[in-house]
Specification:
Shape: globular
Oligomer: single chain
Order of helices and strands: HEHEHEEHEEEEEHEEEEEHEH
Radius of gyration: 19 Å
Number of helices: 7
Low-confidence stretches: none
Strand order of the largest sheet: 5-8-9-10-11-12-13
Mean pLDDT: 91
Length: 280
């Protein structure tokens, strides 16, 4: 079942036997994970046999508060549910990026033009997914449906890197490029490395699908040998086009511009994340 989601084969799998049992399992997994300073255990858990009615009742609209876990993905046909543990480092990473993004919205004067969707889930075909952050403009271009966000952010640990890649590709490719930017944040605790990857749609037409798009990545890597060493940033900083968020060109001679995070800001992100793991 782990292969369905691109997560580690060591990911725990349980048959769904009601919400009381599910919550007990999630709570029982918390303590070992809290003590996992080296980052060797998985942050995911899979439940099988979750039917459509159960999913809609308890998971599809965040009606149920799960103990320290959030919905990652649900496969409707397979009746498989993937949940991810919410940790301080995980929340720090994506909320920091969101906070910096919102500050730029304010500086450009476009806060009233953007809708903050947060963890709003999206279904396409057999799959329902929930990002960590998502955005879409309030006014959409003609002919553009409101089903997909324009930008999403997803965060995970290094053991879930394949899952992050699959997630980013799904957002961009399943939406046929309606998702203009997917930003993934992969945290490697053992090597003190944070990889930010910006995925954008590029045209890769085929005879069968002339409008086919694929997700193309650009990586920025933040690393630190230990907590006393300097923070290094390789392969440039992170930049996202203005049009990815607002779905229109920036207005000339205005404060509107592409969204960019400086080296100093990315160093600050790393410091915030590594504060959660001071002994590494």
């Amino acid at each position: 079942m782990a292969s369905h989601f691109g997560v580690s084969e060591t990911t725990s799998e349980y048959p769904y036997q009601g919400m009381e049992s599910l919550i007990y399992i999630l709570e029982s997994k918390m303590e070992p994970r809290k003590d996992d300073m080296a980052g060797t255990s998985t942050s995911f858990v899979i439940f099988s046999g979750v039917d459509e009615q159960t999913f809609k009742q308890y998971f599809s609209k965040a009606l149920t508060r799960l103990p320290h876990h959030s919905l990652q993905c649900y496969l409707h046909t397979d009746k498989l549910l993937l949940l991810q543990m919410i940790t301080a480092a995980h929340e720090t990473a994506h909320t920091w990026l969101h906070s910096q993004t919102f500050t730029m919205f304010e500086e450009m004067g476009v806060t009233q033009q953007i809708r903050l969707l947060s963890r709003a889930s999206v279904q396409s075909g057999n799959r329902t997914k929930e990002p960590d952050q998502s955005y879409v403009p309030k006014v959409l271009p003609a002919g553009r449906a409101d089903h997909w966000p324009s930008v999403v952010i997803e965060t995970g640990y290094s053991e879930s890197k394949t899952h992050l890649v699959n997630s980013a590709q799904w957002w961009v490719e399943a939406s046929d490029g309606d998702v203009k930017s997917a930003i993934t944040i992969s945290i490697e605790k053992r090597s003190r490395t944070i990889t930010l990857t910006h995925w954008q749609p590029i045209s890769r037409p085929t005879r069968a699908k002339p409008d086919r798009v694929v997700a193309e990545p650009w990586e920025t890597v933040i690393s630190q040998k230990d907590n006393l060493s300097p923070i290094n940033i390789s392969n440039g900083t992170l930049s996202v086009p203005f049009a990815s968020f607002l779905l229109r060109a920036a207005t000339p001679d205005s404060a509107e511009r592409d969204f960019g995070w400086t080296s100093a800001q990315l160093e600050h992100l790393a410091s915030e994340v590594w504060e959660r793991y001071p002994k590494i």
